[in-house]
UniProtKB/TrEMBL annotation:
GO process terms (BP): SRP-dependent cotranslational protein targeting to membrane
Record InterPro entries: Signal_recog_part_SRP72_RNA-bd, SRP72, SRP72_TPR-like, TPR-like_helical_dom_sf, TPR_rpt
Residue ranges, annotated region (Disordered): 545-684
Domain named Signal recognition particle SRP72 subunit RNA-binding: residues: 546-602
PROSITE patterns: TPR
UniProt record similarity statement: Belongs to the SRP72 family.
Coiled coil: 97-152
Gene that specifies this protein: Srp72
Composition bias, Basic and acidic residues: 578-599
Protein name stated in the entry: Signal recognition particle subunit SRP72
Low complexity bias spans: 613-647
């Protein structure tokens, strides 16, 4: 009876605890619900429902690792059929994506929840084709309030295909009513290179986002800006692709100042800023690279995004002269992607910075031998290194070894230019010959079995013409003649080619040139119908005819009788001074400088100023007789006129020769130059 009473009490307690769990679950208080579930498990540790509730409470509280531990501990009770979704979800949130996929695939029954999670897992594994099929199936077979979210995920898959796999996205017919759908559509357009259209979509997404969030009174402006950060980040990326790096950099920095919680967004923005800085502003790049090392970044970005960030870290290490770090990062990248070209190019660039050019060329040659698919790009880099070393001939040999590029016009032009620089004309002509032969063989293969004559391709004819011009320039007239004859044969109406051919024959065989000149069209057929009047009156014409109405009187007769008469320039009348008086005779000495005129008296200055500092120490500039005030009235003027022989008295205070002024000189030696006014004549 006591055992039965105890059992009844435990059942009553369990019932009360279940009521508590139910109430807490409805209120969202999963921490309190977990306490009640633990009490139930103390009563019955193998209660399947209690264990399931405990796992759900732990998941709701974010304790995914502990929840997975409970599942793995009670595998006998919590079988895959019972707890498959919860287990897969915990593995997904713990970034154990492969394990989550196995758990989903091993489930006996594929519920709608498992299918939703399956689509998310496939997206994280970058299996976009399977993911697209999974979401299409979900949208087709589900009808609930989560349809908009499924369409958003579907558009995200299409955007990823367009961006990372360069797949042309199909029109899903989704109505872009939310900013998430507009954003994903813009990402798909970026993948196709339609940057202007993508920018318009992003602007629409920004507008929809503001409208949607502003309806909630609890959302602040800071919350709206934080939500818009990812949209602004894509806008800045488009600006960077369009070459508007200053605008992009400004927008990137604005986003970083907001300090968004999305470490993936911060890592992408920091990486893009580093690519803008390149080898400049290295200090800022070293600060930004720390954002790419944040915890959890590897789970937020795609493999190609992570790879691009690692490449940029290696390049930054090279620019900051961290040679060991650069080699370490590039070697790690090469081990992860053995066929990728960029790690090898970074290693070669680092060796070149260390002046080890031969080692860099050897490294590139080894990679080209191991990976023939990338040999062309590698050999182009090797040729560039040889040119930098001054080994132009070796660079030409490397370029000519790239069979798939030998016949390309750009390659032919580069080789001919390089050989001409080295004055190796024979090799340059050989390059032309090989390219022309390649096009002849290609055309023969293309026209095999055809009876209709097909003319040579424009590229082929262009190469022949360039070869002929090159040979004429370097004196290979006979070889040039054969090329020109081939061109003329292809187009007998080509007057330009015929003229070149006649010009070449005139230097070798004048008689042949005369014969060919008969094929030139007559001057009548070559006359151009030109409206002379319209040409003369056109904008920019150097000669404008005079209108007939302006030719009157004597001028008209002169033009009719004498032809062109040179116009005489009219002399301008000189301007007279304002104070000119025709009744007064002009000064005959007006053409002489003022100091050379007979009536020049010198400048009037203070006596003391003229006398101080004009001689040796203790001497005076004038005789004692000149200082006698009683004799000043009858004394003659001290400044004789020019031309008069003024005698110097031989007294004890005579000025030495080195301090003596020339006769008739003014008191000071300073001469002020005054600019002559235009048209004015001095001396009146």
């Amino acid at each position: 009876k006591m055992a039965a009473t105890a059992g009844a009490g435990a059942a009553a307690a369990a019932a009360g605890l279940w009521s508590e769990v139910n109430r807490c679950g409805q209120n969202g208080d999963f921490a309190r619900a977990l306490k009640s579930v633990n009490k139930i498990l103390q009563i019955n540790k193998d209660d399947v429902t209690a264990l399931q509730c405990k796992v759900v409470c732990l998941i709701q509280n974010g304790n995914f690792k502990e929840a997975l531990g409970v599942i793995n501990t009670h595998t006998k009770v919590l079988t895959s059929d019972v707890i498959a979704f919860e287990k897969a979800y915990c593995e997904y949130r713990l970034n154990r994506i492969e394990s989550a996929l196995k758990t989903i695939q091993s489930a006996s029954q594929q519920t709608d929840k498992l299918k939703e999670l399956y689509g998310q897992v496939l997206y994280r594994l970058e299996r976009y084709d399977d993911c697209l099929a999974a979401y299409r199936d979900l949208i087709r077979n589900s009808q609930d309030e989560y349809e908009e979210e499924r369409k958003t995920n579907l558009s995200a898959v299409v955007a990823a295909q367009s961006t990372w796999e360069k797949v042309v996205p199909e029109d899903l017919g989704l109505r872009e009513a939310t900013y998430e759908l507009c954003y994903n559509s813009a990402c798909a357009l970026i993948g196709q290179g339609k940057l202007n259209e993508a920018m318009k979509k992003l602007q629409k997404a920004e507008e929809l986002c503001r409208q949607s969030l502003s309806e909630d009174s609890d959302v602040t402006e800071e919350d709206i800006e934080a939500e818009l950060a990812i949209i602004h980040g894509q806008m800045a990326y488009i600006m960077q692709l369009q070459g508007r790096t200053e605008d992009a950099l400004q927008l990137y920095n604005q986003i970083i100042k907001l300090k968004p919680t999305d470490v993936g967004l911060l890592a992408v923005i920091a990486n893009n800023i580093i690519t803008i800085n390149k080898d400049q502003n290295v200090f800022d790049s070293k600060k930004k690279v720390k954002l790419t090392n944040a915890e959890g970044v590897e789970h937020k970005l795609s493999k190609k995004q992570l790879q691009a960030i690692e490449f940029n870290k290696a390049l930054l290490a090279m620019y900051t002269n961290q040679a060991d770090q650069c080699r370490k990062l590039s070697a790690s990248l090469q081990s992860q992607s053995p066929e990728h070209l960029l790690p090898v190019l970074i290693q070669a660039a680092q060796l070149c910075r260390e002046k080890q050019h031969a080692k860099a060329v050897g490294l590139l040659q080894d990679f080209a031998d191991q990976h023939p698919a990338s040999a062309a790009e590698i050999k182009l880099t090797m040729a560039q290194l040889k040119i930098a070393q001054g080994s132009v001939t070796k660079a030409c040999m490397i370029l000519r070894s790239i069979e798939e590029l030998q016949h390309k016009p750009g390659m032919v032009s580069a080789l001919v230019t390089m050989y001409s620089h080295e004055e190796d004309i024979d090799s340059a002509i050989e390059v032309f010959t090989q390219a022309i032969q390649w096009y002849q063989q290609y055309q023969a293969r293309t026209n095999y079995g055809c009876c209709v004559f097909q003319p040579k391709s424009p590229v082929h004819l262009s190469l022949i013409r360039e070869a002929a011009n090159f040979k004429l320039k370097h004196g290979r007239k006979k070889e040039a003649i054969s090329d020109l004859e081939e061109l003329w044969k292809q187009n007998p109406k080509d007057v330009h080619t015929l003229a070149q051919l006649i010009s070449a024959y005139s230097l070798v065989d004048p008689e042949k040139a005369k014969v060919l000149s008969k094929h030139l069209p007559s001057s009548d057929t070559m006359s151009l119908k030109v409206d002379v009047d319209a040409l003369e009156n056109s904008h920019g014409a150097t000669y404008v005819r005079k209108k007939a109405g302006k030719l009157t009187g004597d001028n008209q007769q002169k033009e009719q009788g004498q032809g062109e008469v040179k116009k005489k320039k009219k002399k301008k009348k000189g301007k007279l001074p304002k104070n000119y008086d025709p009744k007064v005779t002009p000064d005959p000495e007006r053409w002489l400088p003022m100091r050379e005129r007979s009536y020049y008296r010198g400048r009037k200055k203070g006596k003391k100023k003229d006398q101080v500092g004009k001689g040796t120490q203790g001497s005076t500039t004038t005789g004692t007789s000149e200082l006698d005030a009683s004799r000043t009235a009858s004394s003659p003027p001290t400044s004789p006129r020019p031309g008069s022989g003024a005698a110097v008295s031989a007294t004890s205070n005579v000025i030495p020769p080195r301090h003596q002024k020339p006769a008739g000189a003014p008191a000071t030696k300073k001469k002020q130059q005054q600019k002559k006014k235009k048209g004015a004549k001095g001396g009146w």
